[in-house]
Design goal:
Layout (H helix, E strand, L loop, with lengths): L2 E4 L7 H14 L5 E5 L4 H5 L5 E3 L8 H8 L4 E4 L2 H6 L7 E3 L4 H13 L1 H18 L2 H19 L2
Parallel strand pairs: 1-2, 3-4, 4-5
Helix pairs in contact: 3-6
């Protein structure tokens, strides 16, 4: 198994990365961790994943999650509001308790141990994402949002 982190490192993540590096040295798995930094070809990288994990404590929309759903990759994410919304209350992903590394590990192990079940969920997630987050749906959502904002702006 390889751990790959994709994206630029935020200031508040430096200490966490340092802890991860020290743990990897202690466990002798430094050759199994890849930090890609910011990438333009994230979808290409996603297709190499067996499981996509995003154990965030907070997130905005969760574009990376939507991309993983589009790519039909099994998903394990933290049980935060935006991820519950994007995955329809966990229908299209396994939800792990926020900040609970043991629960995250259990969910990842489940995803790897039951590939047929998880692939079925990932396939359903892809179909859902293609419908819910299509370009046309996103345009309609923004138009609705702007219409609501403009209609209340003059009040």
């Amino acid at each position: 198994m390889v751990l790959m982190t994709v994206g630029s490192e935020r200031d508040d993540e430096a200490a966490l990365k340092s802890k991860l590096d020290m743990l990897a040295v202690r466990l002798g798995v430094t050759d199994r961790i890849i930090y890609t930094g910011s990438r333009d070809d994230v979808l290409d990288i996603l297709f190499a994943f067996d499981v996509f994990a995003m154990p965030s404590i907070t997130e905005g929309f969760g574009l990376a999650l939507a991309e993983a759903l589009f790519a039909e990759i099994p998903v394990v994410v933290s049980d935060i509001a935006v991820f519950r919304d994007v995955t329809r209350e966990g229908k299209y992903a396994l939800l792990s308790r926020i900040g609970d590394s043991e629960d995250l590990a259990k969910k990842l192990q489940h995803a790897l141990s039951y590939p047929d079940e998880i692939k079925k969920i990932a396939h359903q997630a892809r179909d859902f994402a293609r419908h819910a987050y299509s370009r046309q749906k996103m345009i309609e959502s923004y138009e609705k949002l702007y219409a609501e904002d403009f209609s209340t702006a003059g009040r």
